């Protein structure tokens, strides 16, 4: 009898002190512990900024710690690998730009994750791209720029955040649509690329409006066109590239939250509802407006379709430019 009581006592102590791992995996009790969001770009960029806004609100909503951890490198692949290998319990999430979910499978010889296997949770924000030139560039309009680029093949260079980024692919799309030969100068991130554009070391950049608009207003760079299907409210006098004569020219970037493969649908749905509710908050919308980004509101199924469509958009561009086989 004494031995039996000792066994019961030990079992009770173990149960009381053990981590709540088994409980954490019950979707009905989610979340019952800290959540980690891995941002697959360095701190300070657009993905990181938006994720931290969401994470702060998730802490209050769930009453749990929400940690943001930056794992930048290799066009987002490093961070994606970490989340792909994590337990599918909703406690490790990926915050990313499009590349690791869409084009990296086409660009790199080998990935240690399968992009299409991630569970799309939410598209947080979207940002249109712009044709932005150095402040002293001779062309003053989009049409003048196209004419100038055609007359000077191989003489204009454009910056990007790196090989395979949206800024790079948008320029390659422009080369195809406008029959130009712009020269690629890849950088490691937005900040160094923008700095060289301002300094006049590169001629242009197809960069997101959130980065370009303040430079445009300050006269440090000039936005000649937006890559949207209609003019944007913040730049009503700036034409679209469609208006400049480039048919079907649309390009933008976006920030997504994804979960590891096989994360239970109930957890994905709960996260989606929470993130979308946060994006609807007036104070969050005001904050995002100041950042010049647009909050989205999609179900997981809509987010999945959105990511697939964006992948299709850039597949032909990547193949035509022979951008495959990166190490």
List keywords for this structure.
327 residues, alpha/beta, D-Maltodextrin-Binding Protein, domain 2, 2 domains, disordered N terminus
Describe this structure in words.
42% of the residues lie in helices and 18% in strands. By secondary structure, it is α/β, with parallel strands linked by helices. Strands 1, 2, 3, 4, 5, 6, 7, 8, 9 and 10 form a ten-stranded mixed beta sheet that branches. Strand 5 (157-160), helix 7 (166-178) and strand 6 (183-186) form a beta-alpha-beta unit. Helix 3 (46-62) crosses helix 10 (265-280). The longest helix has 21 residues, at 300-320. Residues 1-23 have low confidence and may be disordered.
* Estimated share of beta-strand residues: 15-25%
User: What separation lies between the terminal Cα atoms?
Assistant: 66 Å
Q: What would CATH call the homologous superfamily of the largest domain?
A: Bordetella uptake gene, domain 1
CATH topology of the largest domain: D-Maltodextrin-Binding Protein, domain 2
What's the number of helices? 12
Main sheet summary: 10 strands, mixed
* Rg of Cα set: 23 Å
CATH architecture label name of the largest domain: 3-Layer(aba) Sandwich
| Structural class by sheet pairing and helices | alpha/beta
Q: Structurally, how many domains make up the residues? A: 2
Which series of helices and strands comes N to C?
HHEHEHEHEHEHEHEHEEHHEH
**Helix amount:** 40-55%
Q: Low-confidence parts, pLDDT < 50 over ≥5 residues?
A: 1-23
Q: What's the shape?
A: globular
Q: Under the CATH scheme, which class of the largest domain? A: Alpha Beta
